[in-house]
User: Fold these one by one.
Assistant:
Number 1:
Amino acid sequence: MNTCILKLDPQNIDAAAIERAGCILKAGGLVAFPTETVYGLGGDALNPAASEKIYAAKGRPSDNPLIVHIADMEHLYPIVREVPEKARLLASKWWPGPLTMIFNKTDLVPKETSGGLSTVAVRMPNHPIALALIRAEGGYIAAPSANTSGRPSPTRAEHVAQDLSGRIDMILDGGEVRIGLESTIVDFTEDPPVILRPGYINKSMLEEVLGTVRIDPGILNAEENKNVRPKAPGMRYRHYAPKADLSVVEGEREAVIEKINELTRQAVSEGKKVGVIAADETSSAYTAADVKDIGSRETDKTIARRLFSVLREFDEDGVDLIFSESFETPRMGQAIMNRLLKAAGHHIIKA
Ligand code: TXA
Ligand code: MG
C-alpha cells in the first residue's frame, strides 16, 4: 500500500484535502492525523472492519479498546447509555481538549472498537485538523496513538511515517503536537470517577470541577500496588520502550549527577554507547557523549512534549544504555513519570 502524506496548515486547512481524507475513512480506510496530544491512527469507529484494520496496522492486541473521537456534543448521546452530571460538567470545561471519558456503551459501538468491553472511551480533541476530519467522516473516528504497538507515541508526522508507512492510506501532517502525552482518561462508570491514565489535566485540575477523584491503584508506582492490574487494558502492556535499556536514576540532584556519570564511565569502559536524558538545569553536568536536554523543570510542558521524541532519537543514535533523571514536577510530573517508568520497564536506580 502506498501511504499518501499531505502537509496541512492547521490555521488554514485545505478543505479539499480533508474531504479526500474523510472519503477514505468512510470507505473503511485508515488516516493518521494530528491532535493536541499525539498523532492518532483514525478509522470509522462504527465499522468493525476498520477497527480490525487499526489493530493489524499497529500490531496491537485486539482486546485493547480504541478511543472514539467526536467533534460535537450531540454525537456523544447515541453511543453511550448515560452521561452522569459530573461528566457533563467536565465536558463543558475540558472538551474539546486532552480528556477521554469512559461510559457504558450502546450497541452502536461495535465490540471490535470497544475491545469486547461494555464500555466506550470518548474524546473530543482540541485540534482544528482533527475536528474537521471527524466532521468530514460523519462523526465518529476510532483512533489509538499512531505508533507501532509498544513504541513511543508519535508527536510528529515523521514518527507516524517511521512506524506505519505502507500500512495505512494517508497521513495528515499538521506539524509537531502541542502537548506530547496522551489524554487523561477518567472513568465515569464509577463514582467517584477514577483516573485510569494521567495526562495534561492532572488530579487537582479534575478535582476543581468534580470534587473527589480517585486514581486507579494499578497505575501508581508504589511497591504495594505491584500486583494490581490497571483497569485500562493499554496500561498493562510494556510501552514506549526505546531499543536501548533505559533506567531512571532517582535521588538528590548532585547525587543523581554523580551516579549517572559513574554508571556512564563503567559502561563506556565496557565498550557501550550511553545516552542521558537530563533537564536544562543539569544537562551540562554529564560526561556521556550523547546527552539530550529535555527541557526545563520550571516549564515541565516542554519535558512532556519532548519525551517521546527523545526516546525515538536515541533509537536512531543506536545507544546501548540510557540513564534518565527523574521528573517529579508538580504540574505534569505524574503523567511524565508514568510514561517514563513504563518506557524503563520500571527499572529504577537509587542514587
Ligand atoms: O490522547 C489520546 O488519547 C490519543 C489521541 C490519538 O487521541 N489516543 C490514545 O489512544 O492514546 P490509545 O489507544 O493509544 O490509548 C487508549 C487507552 C488504552 O490504554 C486503552 O486500553 C484505554 O485507553 N481504553 C480505551 N477504551 C477503554 C475502556 N472502555 N475502558 C478502559 N480503558 C479504555
Ligand atoms: Mg497508545
Number 2:
Amino acid sequence: MSHIAYVNGRYLPQRLAQVHIEDRGYQFADGVYEVMCIWNGAPADYEAHIVRLNRSLNELRMASPASDGALKLIVQEIVRRNHVEKGTVYMQVNRGVAPRAHAFPGASVKPSLIVTAKHGAGPSDSVAEHGVKVISMADMRWERCDIKSVGLLPNTLAKQAAAEAKAFEAILYLPDGTVTEASASNAWMVTPDKVIVTHPTTNAILGGVTRARVLKIAKDAGYAVQERPFTLEEARKGKEVFLTGTTTFVMPVVEIDDKPIANGGPGTVALDLRQRYRTYMDSLTEAAWDA
Ligand code: PDD
C-alpha cells in the first residue's frame, strides 16, 4: 500500500510528493517539526504537540502554515488515508521557498507544510524488558535545543555513533559533565534513595511531550521527582537510568559505555513507569483529538 503525504495543500502518493529545491528547510534547515504517536488510531498528547509546534514557530518568527483547526483536519486525514492504527505522524513547517539568501524572505513568502505518517510505534516490549545500552558523547549542539528545529546534524552524528557501538542511544553531556538529554529522547535517572531526576526544561533540552506526560504519571503514582541537572558521574552511580520519547516510550538503560548501571538489569521504577505510560496509551480514544 502506498503512503499518502500531505504537501502544501495536496494529498499525494509519497513517492510523488516533492518540495522545491529553494525551500529554506532544504537550504538552511530553516524549519521545525513534530513527531506524534498514534495509538488505536488516536493521538498521544495531541494538544501538547501543537502547543510545542506553535512555540517553535514563534521562537523562530515563522508564520503558522495553517490554523490549529485546519492542521488537525490535515493530521486526521493523513491518519485516515494511511490507515494508521499504531504509528507516528511527522509534521514539518519550513519558512518557505525563496531565492537563496540567509536573511528571512519577505512576508509574501508562505511557510511550507508537510505531513506524513508511518506504521509501527515504539520499540518492542522485549527490548524494554531487557533494557538497552547507551553511549555517552559531548553535547555539541547549539544553545536553543528547546526549539524542535530540523537542524539535527549533531543528533544524527550522535545516533550514528550509538548505532556503530551497537547501542540504542547516545546520552549527551556538557563540558561540566551535566547530562542534557539523548540524541532523540530525554534522559532520566533514579538516585540510590529512589528519587526520579530529569534535567529541567531550559534551552539545553527539548521539552519532551513524553517527558511531561511521564512526570505527571510519576507524581500521580506518588514517586519523588526532581527536575534538576545531574551529571554523567551521578547517573553511573544511580539506581536506574531511563529514556523517554515519542518513539521510545519509557526505556530502561542498563549500560552506559559498556559499564552496568546498578546490577545491570532494567530498573523497577522504569519498568513501572513504562507500564503506566502504556496504560495511558491504551486509554486513548477518538476523544484524544480534542484532549
Ligand atoms: N524526537 N529530545 C530530543 C532531542 C528529541 O529529538 C526528542 C524527540 C525528545 C523527546 O521528545 P518527545 O517526547 O516530545 O518525543 C527529546 C523525535 C521523536 C524525533 O526527532 O524523531
